[in-house]
Amino acid sequence: DLFAFSTRDNQWSRVAAQGTLPPCVAGATLTHVDGKLYLFGGVNDTTGWANTMHEFDIATNTWAQVEWSGDGPEPCDKHAAAVVGNIIYYWGGFGPTESVEEPDLGSGGGSDGEDGEDEDDEAHAAFCWFNDMHCFDPSTRQFSRVQTDSLVPTARAVHGLCAVDKQLVLFGGKDTNGRQSDTHVFDTVSRTWRFLENTSGKHPTARSFHAMCYIAGRNSILVSGGRDPNDELIATTSILSLDDGTWTEFDNGPMGARCGHTGLAINDKSVVFFGGMTDEGPTTDVFKLTL
Are 262 and 275 in contact (CB under 8 A)? Predict the structure, then answer.
């Protein structure tokens, strides 16, 4: 199912989608380029991990499978994607390193069981975290691997990634050592990574399954909620000013502690959050943060 939420009147509507509908997946990414949505990857209980792509035309409410070519990502879920110009960048994720005929996905509809992360030692031989980057050009349907000579962040999944002009900012996620709290910046022009250090203020705790977005008018990154190293839900939101490198933290208020939710800045003063997992279970509520 596909639903649309109007931030003007706070109303949901079911989209009468047609065409070649994508399969049910968890841990996929959905990005927007030039009036179309691109759904990539994910996992389900029937077919396992995928690196397929579907395109949704917002004007016609029509889905179509994208027959892409080139050097694309391996089948994975819990990766991240962001758009710079009209190019979609994909980084990281979790998936099989070899063909898995009968994936044991647990009851959570993904590679993660209930909380979204496969931590079984016995799975390490067949599954891994990724740290390669690929970019996709919707106009040519072509994937290419992004090569870099700089030091790449550790392979991880369930991290945050957002675009800031011609750069990508990555925060947190989980690697083989556990949940992380590092921030990295990738320049899509020079194709180099750098670790963002010398920040001040109250730095966010290590986490995964957090919401993350860029607030353009404030030139700031927002990181909200997630799971901490003790597997506890986080009830705070942090904002990093890219102008002076200062972190500011505040309580989530009525939204409370949660993970697996999404956040989107709709203007310079408002961020809308949807869904996720709370202590009471999955939720479909919507909250608006006014800055």
Answer: yes
How many CA atoms lie within 13 Å of 284's alpha carbon, on the beta-carbon side? Answer: 4
> Which tokens is 37 given?
């949505």
Kind of pairing, strands 3-6 and 36-40?
unpaired
Least confident range of 43-52, 95-104, 188-197: 95-104
Could you tell me if 138 and 180 are in contact, meaning their C-beta atoms sit under 8 angstroms apart?
no
Q: Rounded CA gap, 74 and 71, in Å?
A: 9
- Say how far residue 253 (Cα) sits from the centre of its chain: 23
Tell me how many degrees the CA angle 106-226-129 measures, rounded to the nearest 5: 55
Q: Give pLDDT tens digits for 89-110.
A: 999 999 998 654 444 433 334 4
Sole residue written with tokens 């000579």: 149
* Predicted structure pTM score: 0.92
Beta bridge partners of 227: 208, 233
